[in-house]
Input
Amino acid sequence: MRVDLQLHTFDGVDYHSVNARGYVPLLELDDGQRLTEGPAILQYVADQVPEKKLAPAWGTTERYRLIKWLAFISGELHENLGPLFSPVMSGDEKDFHLMCVLDRFQ
Output
């Protein structure tokens, strides 16, 4: 189900009652436990079907490179990418955030 990010509701209830931090993503497992944070969710999903090779195997250098990139995306890029899609941000503000993103690749 989708979270209404404007109203912070999920299935008609305050989303903060589902996730105290109030942000997405969140994955609820079959046993009711909840995982948050994109890198953790992506790795969990990949590990459910290892034969699909959605992520390298645990303990390999390739897996640690995946973790590095997931951390880079969520920690360095994500914060400045969101404003680029904001209808209320000015062109100058968007240019600033774009420069912050591009700067991370140097």
